[in-house]
């Protein structure tokens, strides 16, 4: 072997072992990555177009191609979770987003989706956490902070809701939605008077600036008036809504009007409204509502849509009975309780009222029986012990 050939071979082997081909390999690798990114971008665009068009199967197929090669791709998992939610496959969506909070560069959209899943599962603590994280990623979306606050209230954390409200509205001009949100915080904190004032302010802004639905706010305000013992004021707010045959939520307005009238002692007129609401629905089965065992007031809020008219009438009699009891008209209260008992299943609030009124009327055995049934439904109720003492 010549010295020149030996030198060439030595240099060649040395160059190979030292990685002289690395620049070429790196260029190929970068080209492959660019191709993969371009391919994914195309697949994402096709998936988003299919999702917009409602072609969930096509969207799923495009996204699964991405995730087959990149299982941890954040955008792919987020979009596939959206597809799964649209398909009502909540378990799959939850699996895709289970660790969303730890994703690097996570989007507000992904965190919001996780919050939606948590809220659907009634895990309000987790929902609040993910909604708030989403807002902190994109603070321009006040709706994310609103969702977080609503979830905090549902979880019973009024202090956290108030803190987040103060933070997310600092320096912001007052809007109808902001007043509604603060009103709900005050309602949850037990200050119904302040909540009512805030709803009135929200209604004014909604009408002046065309912000939000002032009629829906009127329904909420009427409910607050009932809680404040001002049922007649509540009735005056919603009567026009009930009489407007074009109003899309007319049944809800009629139901609220009936409850306001009953809380003002106008049981007869309230029952007339209930009859009209129920008469708007054809083929309603005449059956009792036995789906709730808790508070009768919260149980019946959406009854007009389910057509459960016996339960609606029972609610009216319950509210009227409470009005008569507060006025110490014990016989009228007892008559209303008897009518309510004939229409609805056992409810804690109804049993509580029955126990009190029976005792005031000297019917000790009826009072004892009502408290016994009350105890079976809610054995640790502190009000039960207070009444017995």
Task: Give a quick rundown of the structure.
This protein is mainly alpha-helical and 389 residues long. The protein has helices at residues 3-18, 22-53, 56-69, 74-86, 90-96, 108-120, 124-137, 142-154, 158-169, 176-188, 192-209, 214-227, 231-243, 250-263, 267-279, 296-299, 303-306, 309-326, 330-341, 348-360, 364-377, 382-388.
Explain how this protein is built.
This protein has 22 helices and no strands. The protein is mainly alpha-helical and 389 residues long.
SSE blueprint:
Layout: H1 3-18, H2 22-53, H3 56-69, H4 74-86, H5 90-96, H6 108-120, H7 124-137, H8 142-154, H9 158-169, H10 176-188, H11 192-209, H12 214-227, H13 231-243, H14 250-263, H15 267-279, H16 296-299, H17 303-306, H18 309-326, H19 330-341, H20 348-360, H21 364-377, H22 382-388
Helix pairs in contact: 2-3, 2-4, 3-4, 4-5, 4-6, 6-7, 7-8, 8-9, 8-10, 9-10, 10-11, 11-12, 12-13, 12-14, 13-14, 14-15, 14-18, 15-18, 18-19, 19-20, 20-21
């Amino acid at each position: 072997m010549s010295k020149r050939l030996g030198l060439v071979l030595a240099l060649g082997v040395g160059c190979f072992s030292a990685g002289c081909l690395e620049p070429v390999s790196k260029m190929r690798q970068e080209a492959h990555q660019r191709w993969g990114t371009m391919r994914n971008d195309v697949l994402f665009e096709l998936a988003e177009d299919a999702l917009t068009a409602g072609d969930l199967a096509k969207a799923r197929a495009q996204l699964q191609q991405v995730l087959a090669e990149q299982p941890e791709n954040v955008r792919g998992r987020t979009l596939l979770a959206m597809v799964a939610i649209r398909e009502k496959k909540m378990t799959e969506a939850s699996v895709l987003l289970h660790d969303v909070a730890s994703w690097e560069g996570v989007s507000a959209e992904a965190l919001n989706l996780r919050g939606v899943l948590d809220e659907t599962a009634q895990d309000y603590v987790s929902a609040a956490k993910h909604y708030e994280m989403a807002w902190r990623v994109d603070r321009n979306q006040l709706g994310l902070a609103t969702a977080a606050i609503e979830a905090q209230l549902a979880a019973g954390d009024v202090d956290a809701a108030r803190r987040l409200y103060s933070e997310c509205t600092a320096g912001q001009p007052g809007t109808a939605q902001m007043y509604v949100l603060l009103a709900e915080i005050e309602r949850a904190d037990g200050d119904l008077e302040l909540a009512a004032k805030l709803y009135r302010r929200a209604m004014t802004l909604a009408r002046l600036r065309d912000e939000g639905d002032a009629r829906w706010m009127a329904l909420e305000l009427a409910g607050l008036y009932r809680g404040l013992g001002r049922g007649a004021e509540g009735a005056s707010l919603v009567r026009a809504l009930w009489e407007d045959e074009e109003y899309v939520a007319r049944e809800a307005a009629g139901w609220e009007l009936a409850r306001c009238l009953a809380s003002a002692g106008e049981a007869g007129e309230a029952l007339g409204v209930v009859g009209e609401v129920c008469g708007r629905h054809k083929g309603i089965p005449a059956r009792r509502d036995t789906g709730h065992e808790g508070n009768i007031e919260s149980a019946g809020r959406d009854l007009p849509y389910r057509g459960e008219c016996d339960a609606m009438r029972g609610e009216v009699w319950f509210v009227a009975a409470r009005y008569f009891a507060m006025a110490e008209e014990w016989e009228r209260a007892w008559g209303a309780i008897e009518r309510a008992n004939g229409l609805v299943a056992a409810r804690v609030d109804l049993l509580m009222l029955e126990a009190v009124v029976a005792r005031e009327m000297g019917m000790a055995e009826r009072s004892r029986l009502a408290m016994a049934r009350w105890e079976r439904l809610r054995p640790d109720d502190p009000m039960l012990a207070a009444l017995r003492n």
